[in-house]
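sanity check this record:

:::
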Amino acid sequence: MKKNASCNEAGSAFGGNPLLPAIRPDDLNGRYRRLYQASVPKLLLMMKLLSLFLVIALLSGYVKGTAQNVTLSGKDLTLKQVFRAIEKQTGYVVFGKQDFLAKSKPVTLNVRNLPLSALLEKVLKDQGISFELDASTLSIVLSRIPPPVTDRIDLLSLETPRILVTGTIVDTLGNPLSGASVQVKGRAGGVVSDKLGRFFLEAKEKDRIVVSFVGYEKYEFPVGKGEGNWVIVLRPSQDRMENVEVVSNGYQQLPKERATGSFTVINREMLNRSTGPDILTRLEGITNGLLFNRTVAEGEDVGEFQLESRGRATIMSESTPLIVLDNFPFEGNIRDINPNDVESVTILRDAAAASIWGARAGNGVIVITTRQGNYNRKAEISISATTNIFSKPDLFYDRRFMPSEMVMQIEKEKFERGDWLGDENLKFSFSPYAELLIKRRDHLISEEDFLAEEQRMKNTDVRNDALKYLYRNALQQQYSMNINGGSNVNKYFFSVGYDKSRSAMVGDDDRRLTLNMQNSFKPVKNLEITTRLTYTRTNANKNAFNITDLGTSRSGLRPYTRLVDENGKPVAVERNIRTATTEEAEAAGMLPWHFSPLEEIGLSDNTATGSFLNLLGNVRYQLMEGININATYQYTESNNSGREYYAPETYYVRNLVNLYTQPNGTKPIPYGGILSLSNPLQQVQHSGRIQVNGQRNFGEHDIAVLGGAEIRQAVDQSFPGSILYNYDEDLGVGTSRMDFTKTYLLYTSSGATIPGPDQNTYYKIDRYLSYFANASHTFRSKYILSGSARWDGSNLFGVKTNQKGTLLWSAGASWELSAEDFFKAKWVDYLRLRSTYGSSGNVNKGVSAYPVIDYSASSFVDPNLERYASITSPGNPSLKWERVATFNIGADWSIFNRRVSGSLEFFTKKANDLIGDAFIPPSTGIGSANNQIRSYRYNYAALRTNGIDLQVTTKNLEGPFKWQTTWIVNFAKDKVTDYYNSGTLLGVNYVGLYGFQTPLEIGRSVSGIYAFPWNGLDPSNGKVKLLKDGQSTTDYAGYLASVKPGDMVYAGVTSPVYYGSILNNLEWKRLQLSILLTWKAGYVYRRSTLFPGMEYEGIGSFHADILQKWKKPGDELVTNVPAGGGLNGYDRNEATVYMYSNSLIARGDHIAIQDINLSYSVLPGNRMSGVFKSARIFLYARNLGFLWKADRNNVDPSMPNARYPQPKQFSAGVQLAF
């Protein structure tokens, strides 16, 4: 460490930084476009070019920073003028006492390309000032040359020696804080940090240094001997987080306190507390007003969810919020965005916030802003690595299983009655246990062997083998590296990310590579040019078998199925053809026909590949002070394709060859590999925008305006697939010269054509044209009026002129009440009231103003018929945009010296002209028929949603140990206010029978669920009690045929009405603990079940509820499962009444432990250690179970239709910055 003379009142004469030359990517629309379409070799070339860009940027910065020459001429220049020129030309910042400038002598200079050190020597000669150059921090420290030593004793020299304390002040993200105050505690004066966050301060040993900055918490540290270079990390104060944060609506950025609309901002620090592979899952539980509805998850898709912002505002159209990525709508796969590249996420919730997006903002808007470089900042590198491991799926959670012994007893009863006598003459599989019984009957197996095999089956549970051999602990590895920085004319950001995931199912895995390069430079005054390239490539292997794949099409999955024998060797599982049939065929010389799932996993090579390319160019020109114009163009392209290769040894190939073998022994399908390429899908978007921004201050008035126009075109298309038989993977050759039109006799006696390629294609083009404007007026920094308007046009809707476009608008106002002189409540630190009203819209791409005709080629069916057409939609020239009007009123506050702060909002959304299915009589002859009920889709419905958003943050403890809690409470309830109903519907239409969509009722929710009334079980026979006109009856068929909608029970809604979270943050020194609880309430779900008797039907009709069925009088007091039927059948109408009764409706209310994060910051707040600026290690756990559930059934109420709950997640990671 270099110790310099005192500089108690250090200050920068003029800000500056090392220069990095502007770097522009070459020919983004040419070179990178071609690189993108290339395969692996060209991908490597792209990476090399990007690496070259990085090296050039760094080297250019190094050259500029080490060869510092100055050109300066002038007469009687003050030192301040000289230092200002030095800082401007070299980037070095000058520190020293202010009186150095006041007491200095003017100098006359005429130098050209003079080295910096030589110039300083020339200027400071005879000034009594010395200097010290520090190239590592780009600083010049001035000091007074001490007077000559004399023999007189100076009592001041006996004082405690002073120590020069140096350091850098940054925020929690590592960004330098310029203008932070640094002073010795209890002493007047001090210094401020420069543009790079650096400071120099003289102090004594054991002094305490206090660092403060507006909007951040103060930081103190003691001075010790030999102090080095400190890195001080300041944390945002709650006041800053709520009232000084910047929000982005995709068109502009503005301080939150200047916005009248409703925004929720999630910064990078909050986003990084979780470790999800995509940015949306990281928002769950921490975002006010955003519901992650997981009740839509079914089967093994346990990660599925539906996003809703402030409830629903549509019926049939898209209900998820519009996603905006760096100021343009994003319609691709959210996994194409690397979450480590995201700077912030802003949720636009009301009309004033979202209406700038017009006809696509009715469901709210999620604005994602990615990271950028910073002007006047040295290059910084950040690296993060995370490993996520998941528990195995809980296959024993699913109640759609029965014990093997009970299933075998059912099958034995069916066998003894002769149910499978007819199946014995067929070649299709029906029951492995029945096959064993047949062998016993026909004396093909000894009694001893029969009993041993029967006992083995009884002791087998296929879920044990599946967990051991088909499932595993899923594993995700995430790596990310980025570098950013800039000079006074250039800023850049470059990142690379690599994710590798191993699925919970053996044979499935995927990889993701992301590249992001942004560069902005100012070639001339007032002009800024920005370019960005984002590229993502994904590769996935899809070779796994899940537990349901083990079943057959005729008999389903049998619980006694096993995957390995006693020695752990893979065994064959009966597929769709009887084992006896396959053995007979093999004996006749056909290919082996057994199916062993464990052997199959390693024989196939099925992959899916995707890529995403985003190119953006922006030109920004400062017309005059406060007014600039922006022109932006963006090109986006995504491609997805699939490849399925089956080796000759796979069951798929062997089964096809054997099935198509003709009676004369000919084989239409050759024995060899099969390569199938699915239809490639491509989406290309072109977007352009021109926008003028203005902001001026006129005394007490602040005016901000923007206006512009944008145009966008999106083209979706697919291309024909292909298939090659007898494919040699090593040579890459096969044949497609097959007769796909001929029907062949199959070995199973039915006929079929040879599987051919998918020749379907489609081409869809959407065009949008918009004009927009926004303005706000702030008076005395406490009164704000805002307004916006947008006109949207599209080729989606409207034949009539007045429906080709729509005008949407909003208005808002806010009042900072606490800034008024008359406001005397001292316990209130901040209080702002705001209100907005406006309209936005929604899009339904599934309807058209014109008739839609689907053309199909039918060469596989009739070679003489080249193509045929069918009308899929009759067209509706009166179609128009859906409109959503939103009223919002709210307050932001903080009280008790910022100990309690938050916001409270009330909102009402009225959605009109909603597109819905109107059920109409068949006599109209239009629309599609569904169970004899015809429907026609057009604008006519209306919906109203009322709600409340509340967020409160409390500082429970402050000091060395900090404890902060954030409470989020959301309420959103919708009801239909207009919906056409012909009155011809029956009650059975309201429970979703026969795939019929539940009709809507005025005054009730879109997600309402109906049920038959439940009256219990008859204690005499266990049958379902049925009341018709107040009288007990068993005429279930008559009841179903006549039950009226008014007789149905409106059981509730399937989407949570109340939801929220509780986030506790605890901090002690460098250790942080964060615990997130989430809760949902006010909704119900229908439990799965099975009517007793159905288990005899086969096809996997099993359920644990059968074990609880009524057996004797008195059981009706402890069970609702009817006695039902048995081997001799059951009453299907009674089964319908039971399975759709409200006895199976359960409350979904629950409180869950969403996640826990424990982190330790190694370096922040301590002196610089090596090359690292900061380091953080963390442990993370997610999906940790429920604290409370309203219903005691063993069902996850958040996803009741899933086969198993979300597996628990445990993670560890490290984040480094240097």
Remarks:
- Residues 179 and 193 are 5 Å apart (CA to CA).
- The first strand starts at residue 69 and ends at 77.
- The chain has 17 helices and 58 strands.
- The mean pLDDT is 84.
